Amino acid sequence: MLLYISSNENIGIFDFLSNEHGMVIKNLSGSFSLNQFVIHDMRSLNHYSYFAIDLKALKDTEDEIIEAIIAFKSMFSSRVILYIEDIKNNERLIEQLIEHGIYNIISADTVDDLKEEIQRTISDIGISKRDIKLKLNKTYGTENCYIPEYYFENKDIKIAVTGVSHKVGTTTIAMNLCNYLAGIGASVCYIEANNNGHIQKLPSVYLGMTVKSDCIIYNGVKYLSLNSHSDEEYHFVIYDMGVIERKTIKAIKNNFDVSITCATAKPYEIGAYDKAIDLLDDVRVHTIFSFVQDNAKTKLQEQYGNVLFSEYTPDLFDSEKNKDIWDQILDKYITKNTI
Prior knowledge:
Layout: E1 2-6, H1 16-21, E2 25-29, H2 34-40, H3 42-45, E3 50-54, H4 62-75, E4 79-83, H5 91-99, E5 105-106, H6 111-121, H7 129-140, E6 148-151, E7 157-163, H8 170-183, E8 188-192, E9 210-211, E10 215-218, E11 221-225, E12 236-243, H9 246-255, E13 258-263, H10 270-280, E14 286-289, H11 294-304, E15 308-309, H12 323-329, E16 335-338
Parallel strand pairs: 1-2, 1-3, 3-4, 4-5, 7-12, 7-13, 8-11, 8-12, 13-14, 14-15
Antiparallel strand pairs: 6-16, 9-10, 10-11
C-alpha cells in the first residue's frame, strides 16, 4: 500500500502502480503541514509500505520537513519517497534528506522518466545514495556536490566471511562490509549461510527495516537466509558462513571469489586461528583480527604475515570505520574515480 499526499496539480503520478503492479494507492490532495499530519494521523500511517510526499503540497519550512521525516522514521518502517519538481532550488533540503538516509527522491520532468524513477523507488533496494548524489552532480555541477564515484565492472562477486570460532565478530564484519559496499553505490546482498538466525531478530530492534516474506531490506542492503530466493542480480553477494569447518573449506575454495576469516588474538583465543590456518591449507584468505591492542599488532604481523586489523565497530550497519580494509581487499573489483 502507498499513501501519497499531493498538490492538486500532481495528484495522479503514482496511479499507474495500481494498474501495472496491483498496488493499493491512497491519494490525499491539498495543502498540508507535514508535522501535524504525521502526529495526527499516526495510527493510520502504520498500514503503508510507502509514504510519498509531493513537496509542492507542503507548507512547512525546510527544517520542519526534516523534523517531521525524522519523527516519521522513528515510528514507522514505511519507505519515504519525495517528489521534488524544482530540484535546482532545493539543494539544502535535498542534502539534509540524504544526510538522514532519504534517497528515494524523484524529480524527472517527462512522464516516461518519472514513471521509471517511481518504479525504482518501489523496487526492493530503491534509489541508492550514489544515484541521487550523481543526479545532484549533474544538476548543480561538481563544484557544489563533489563525491567519489565508484565503478563495478563485475557482477555476482561472491565473498565468504567465516570466523575461527564463535564471538569473533564474523557477523558484524560481514554486515559492515555490506553497508560499505551499498554506501559507495554497489548492489549488495547479505546471506546468512549459517544456523544462527540472527537476521530474523533485527526488525524488532532496528526501526525502518522493510520486512518481506523471506527477506529484510535496510539501508540499501538485502538480507536473506540461506533458503531465501532472489531473482535479482547483485554486484556483491556476502555469505556469512559462521564458524569455519572442514565441510566449508571446499565450498570456499571452489565457489567464492574472495574469502575473509575473522579472528581474535588473546592468548586463549589465538589457538583457534592456528587450527583454522591448518584447515584452510592452500586457500587464499584475508584475515581480519578484531579487538587487538596496538602494541600486539606488529607481533601478529611478524608471526602470520599480512593480516589486517579492524577498528572497533559495535554498529552492525557501520559503513565507514573499516573502509581502508575493504578498499584493500576488494581493490581488484572496484574502480574509483573522482568527479
